[in-house]
Amino acid sequence: MVTTSSNLTLPPGTIVTGRWKGERYLIQRLLGQGANGVVYLVKQMKSARLYALKMGFDTLDLQSEINVLKALQRKRRKNGSTGKRDLSYLVEVDDYSHQGKEIPFYVMRYVKGEPLRSFLTQQGSRWLNVAGYSLLQQLEGLHDLGFTFGDLKPENVLVSPYGEVELIDYGGVSENGRSVRQFTEWYDRGYWGAGGRTAEPSYDLFSFAVVCIHLLAEPLLKEAAINLPQTRSKSDLLTIVRRESALQPYRKWLERALEGKFRSTAEARQLWREQVQKQVLQRKSKSPTPTWMMGAFTLSVLLLLCALFFTFWN
Ligand SMILES: Nc1ncnc2c1ncn2[C@@H]1O[C@H](COP(=O)(O)OP(=O)(O)OP(=O)(O)O)[C@@H](O)[C@H]1O
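Above are the sequence and the adenosine-5'-triphosphate SMILES. Below is the predicted complex in structure-token form.
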């Protein structure tokens, strides 16, 4: 096995022992690899619990990601009201000594889910209603703590079988008011000449609007994205939204997000909910959708609404 700082693959069965804290983790399998690191599914030896463990290629990048996670954790603890689940996202930070090198790693909650795109391919694009609502809930929690996610893209959104969303990859999270640290062209407001790269809730809402366009009208988005920067603009996106039939149920929401007109993420979430309710009612009155499917879908919407209620009103 060749190990360099930019290429580190550890086989299943390897035990990663933290240099400072001594905790031991047994690697089960590779979960994924990105620009900033490798993520493994691991079993904590003392508890037999499953976690995700991320090892960094670049110590500084990983450290700043860890700093953000710690800051979020501190704020969540202080606020105490954003749901117990989130308090334990970051589990541990340590170094791993491997072939004479110190490799930094952190351990986080293992998120069992499918990336948004494959989830919708398997379940049907209608499930964007449920997943989108859950995503807006997640963003609202983050925004309320004073942070912007930044690098919102389909790969960073994992969805559970019931449509509940978890964001992964906090490497792009920035404090509101600062510059966005990490972004991906298509979902970046600056790329479309639609605003600056200041971290603020409207930045994430814009990205989510482009994510929706990407998922439901990819060929048109691809076409618009190849325009030169001088000719590429937010109106290209607005034109797609007005023309593409698959986007019509979301039109009002997408227009407001692209124009940066939501006053808050709560308002964006509320409008999303209204448009979902409208669709459910319309379908009920005219579509021959099997009752079981409508039942499962409505149950998921209800579960999300309950989760929201307990999170924000308790
Ligand atoms: N907590 C988690 N639970 C389950 N899988 C995860 C988790 N975190 C990351 N992954 C998987 O590992 C992959 C890479 O992780 P991540 O996106 O954090 O790496 P990255 O190097 O920052 O990626 P990018 O190049 O997108 O910035 C993800 O696409 C996902 O499949």
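DSSP finds ten helices and eleven strands in the chain.
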